[in-house]
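User: quick one
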Amino acid sequence: MSSTQDLKPDTQPDLNIERDVGNFHYDTQYEFDAGVGLTEQTIDYISDVKGEDAWVRQFRKKALKTFLDKPLPTHWASKDLENIDYEKIRYYLSKGQRPSRSWDEVPDEVKQTFERLGIPEKERAYLAGVEAQFDSEASYSNMKEDLAEQGVIFVGSTEGLKEHPELFKKWFGKVIPIGDNKFSALNSAVFSGGSFIYVPPGVKVKQPLQAYFRINAENFGQFERTLIIADEGAEVTYMEGCTAPTFETSTLHSAVVELVALKGAKIQYITVQNWSANVFNLVTKRGLAMDGAEIKWIDCNIGSRLTMKYPGVIMRGPGARGEVLSIALAHDGQHQDTGAKMIHAADHTTSNITSKSISIGQGRSTYRGIVSIPRQLKGCKNNTECDALLINTNSRTDTYPAITVRGNQSTVQHEASVSKVSAEQIFYMMQRGLPEDEAMSLAVNGFVNDLIREFPMEYSVELKRLIDLEMEGSVG
Amino acid sequence: MSDTLAIENPSLEDPKIFQFHQEQAGLEVDWFKQAQQAAWARYLELPLPVRTNEKWRFANLSRLRDTGRFQPAGGELSQVTVDRIVKASHRFKEVAGRIILADETLAAPVELDPELGKKGIIFTTLTDAIVKYPELVQKYFMQQSPELGSEKFEALHVAMLRNGVFLHVPDNVEVDRPFVIYNWTVRDKGAIFPHTLFVAGKHAKATLIEFQESASPGTEHLVVANAHLFADDGAQPNHTIVQNWNQNTLSLQLNTNNAWSDTNAKSTLINVGSAQARQEVHGKIFGSGSNVEMYALNVPTENQEFDQRTLQTHIAPNSRSDLLFKNALIGKSRTIFSGLIIVEEDAQQTDAYQTNNNLMLSEEAEANSLPGLEIKANDVKCSHGATTGRINDSELFYFLARGIPRNKAQELMVFGYFEEIVEKLDNQELADYVREVVQHKFMD
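Assistant: Done. Structure below.
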């Protein structure tokens, strides 16, 4: 019989099966290019191209200073961060400022890219709105008309700050301040693109709004900035997907995403990250939930070289609720350092974290989390579950939670387990005629199944297929 | 207090302190003197801990930065004090041996059952052992380190070390009765650096119980203690420390438990004393078929801070480790539990568990829990759990409905909560004493 014990440590699973879809690249003529390296001039260039207000330029320059002053967080984070060469990165590249409103206006090579990624198709299928970002700027953005009539705003960050300052300025940089961490400071200095969404009181956007992020250029840094405001009683779901072609040199993606759910609002934010294996994905995501509001992050990390991402919820109002559902899959050469932050700042707030990670080959997945009930609050609850599955003998997983509770009116539970696919399970399935790799796939799907059920249907189908593909060849 | 007949000691700040201290100790064993010399140089060189160091996350560092005023203990104690200490150092009807140290000095002659001496058991003060069995002590002395952040204090410990206990149980010798150590702090502003070395030979079995106490409640102390446990193949050592220094003590306890094959090694920490207690325990498993258990029972009250860092490192395959640290927090007390299980590449078939429970009994208590895992092998069973909660209301209601007053009900429930640890002590007299000490904390 066979057991996973027998897997050779050098088993090389085929990594690129699904990433192939994104692994192509066009030579594109960029109209605007801020050049290589990061100085005040880079900032001025970006601000000039975008024609920004003085306060935005000031905000960027302040952030640049913070970025340069802050040390890398390598006292706890991966030393791999030291391999990012900020002097070689291009911080701004675009073909033009205004996103096209209809598919026909999109330039051909960009269209080809998105065609291959299946955007228009998906849009036709069910999406309420789509925005697609190609390097620094949105290249295509569209939203169903009835939503616009209800007052829903779905624009890029440039347009959002320019056209609707009264709405966005209030919260911009408030949930995630410039100095939150080195990479949020970097994003604040050079941000471009991303989505600004406002959903008016009581409006429930039934279908999800969707964004695609695509890095096309080599040595490029993508720094999109997203701010979603759900006014009182509003509801919205946002989905994002990311891809990049495989280059020899590394590429940096460092986004900042701020969510604001006012009284009774609900925001659901779904990410499927499938960056190619040369991308540093260092993202800061945080939501602010007021009275009775609910913020839910659904986070899937499949690609990238190093991902560091800990979506958080600050439960500011009584009865607010935060949730993070996270799936991470780490292959050879990949480190998925993901987790969650739950900050309870009002009575009767509840949060839930469910994290499942799978490490294949020499892949490393890390759960890092913070749960904090810092003041003497009443009736707060957190439940955290982290499960890790190790496929090969040399796969690696870590768990580093930090839980702080003050007072005797709250309860917190944290549980983590590490397991492998049991030899008995595989044997049982093979005995019934399944080949070993299919048996393995089935076991892994079983491991994440209860979490995947929480996803919107289209995504759960897609994810299951992705896992099947990733598992192919992982049994030696 | 006029407990001391001694000359004025220099404090830790005094540049001549090391030389003075070494001359006072008068130990003429070269390797040991050199080890102390090197440690002193390392102590001066190493930086004080900073909060950005993960190993000191959440810790209160202000007291640790302010240890210069303490004077390493030296000189003689008054007979009255010594008599009182010896009288109080009597918690068991029958012991295998007893050592009483007051400010690192023997308060009474070492007691060891002569029958056990004939079997080759060594139970004596560390200084005595260094002189009589220099090679044996050298084989184990400071060979392992907790590696959990207190390197500077470890260096200070070695440099200033004046006494401790050496227990060596030879192969195939089993002892049922406990070996008992009483460690007392006496002089105000005194610093002590007790060192316990417990070596269990192949298939040896023994229990060592260590009581840490202060002669009076009002004095102020710094304690940097070490305890190292070595369990050779098939050994069954059991080590318990009851930390009950007075409430003005800053204490550090830096321990390692080292297990080879087929051992059953158990260590337990009971914590009630100190203003601030930092404890590091590193369980290292070098052999297969071993079972290493690490327990702690902590009852911080008022403004006490208990900061516990643990490591369970599985180097060899097919062993088991189990850690259970339970806290009941009262008043404005704080606890930090930071635990990490490391499973190395070759340690397949490891079973490793880690649990931290915090029972919050006041509005102002704060519990920090950092339960971690680092797993580099895939065929393992590892889990950790951390819970922080309060007394179950429906259980409390059940007590109240039967006419048991709220305070009493709470106390009973806390006892029930701790019983899981107490029953693992495997010694009735010790278990009774621990229950008594816990109860005392509730009456304060």
